[in-house]
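Researcher: Checking consistency across runs. Here is L,D-transpeptidase again:
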Amino acid sequence: MPRKLNDPSPLGAQSGDGSHVSRRLFTLGGLAGLALPLAGCYTVGLPGQPPLPDETFDYDAAYAELPDGEFTWPAINYKAFDRKFLRQVVDFKSREKPGTIIVDPYNNFLYWTLSPKKALRYGIGVGRAGFAWSGEALIRVKREHPIWRPPREMIARKPSLERYWKDGYPAGLKNPLGARAMDLWQGSVDTLYRIHGTNQPSSIGKSVSSGCIRMWQQDVIDLFERVPLRTKVIVLQKDEEDSEA
């Protein structure tokens, strides 16, 4: 049965970039993973994860320049964006098990469910691949500082990218996958669909030309530190997008 999920707040290749998939509900299966107490009595996620945003949350610190191994990700000018795209806990009704990721590509939100009535929401940017998918999968691979290989259809449009097909585009500030990538699989098959960072922070809250589900570097690192492997993910189709309660 179609899932109807409500958020009362305002709505506003090996990389997975540019892959062709169908326009149907993307339903991904899996286990919620390890549990531990969190603020507000939530019991989902990996141990040692960051605190949840609350009314005293310091967004200046959350979106500040971020050292990360050999790289330092630039600060996000978050005040230039609609506040709805900032990381925040929202009212969100869902029948899914806490710890599920639910993506609404049509309103540019990603939700990580905390309870039947609450979720941690992030703003996202969505490429063509993010609107075109069907099937079931799990987060089977989590990659820090991923390399990126352009899909063949992108190389066909821009032949100069062929040099990155074999060894990939190296990790770093210019890498299209950004700081982290979470790869979604169907059984033993890589779907080429990813949740990943972006080197184009202005794309958050927008539909963009390429990519799957892209997040600010600070946000994708935050999500990466919360979700275990085999996390269940659901990507909604147009007639299942959230509506106000």
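Researcher: Does this match what you'd expect to see?
Model: One thing to look at in this run: The two ends are 20 Å apart (CA to CA).
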